[in-house]
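User: Good morning. I'm curious how thymidine-5'-diphosphate would be positioned relative to this chain. Could you predict the structure with it bound?
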Amino acid sequence: MIKKPYNCPVLEHFYVFEGLDGAGTTTQAQLLVQTIHRDGHAVDLDHEPTDGPVGLHIRDILGHRGHADHHSLALLFAADRRSHMYDPDRGVVARHENGVRVVCDRYLPSSLAYQGVTCGFEQVIRFNGDLPVPMRLFFLDVPVSVCLDRLEGRNERELFEHETFLVETLSVYEAALEHMAAQGSTVYRIDGTQTVEEVHREVCRYLD
Ligand code: TYD
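Assistant: Good morning! Here's the predicted structure, ligand included:
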């Protein structure tokens, strides 16, 4: 773990994938886990929202089976994230200290971008204090129109899966990525309209 002179640690083997709904974060996170595993390292595949009680409650809200106002939802994401990072046994920080690499499908930048739209960027930063940051952050850059085409074949649209919202989210992602870079993450922007294999190869090139 590399300590920074300010705020929070940068976790060397914590890898985060970010992008709009439909950008391909889940597929790319899975592929990276397979590659790291093949290279002989212990590695976990995580995602946010998590499968913990708060994460499952968030999933209900996203799937229209529950309701929360925007600020409460932003706080739920922040609470889910804190326990994801700091749970003494299963948290990312604990596993990282035990030599386990963690690839995560979405993290803090998702809150900064999505809840940045609904609650304001600064408010989301306040809600998410003192969190470690990944040394490597992969942003899959995909135009909103392509994301919407990809989402077309899936089940019912979730809470944020609408054109106007995704357009705004994409613009706030710029500030989110800048914030992460200022906190010590190296941000890799990848053209997510390439094939799955091409995107994965590009990710692997950055890891070499
Ligand atoms: P995701 O897991 O990518 O969707 P799917 O269920 O299709 O695999 O993410 C769920 C949704 O939650 C997505 O619209 C992004 C949103 N989200 C936030 O708004 N804030 C957050 O902090 C996180 C982690 C996700």
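DSSP finds nine helices and five strands in the chain. The first helix runs from residue 25 to 38.
Let me know if you'd like a different ligand tried.
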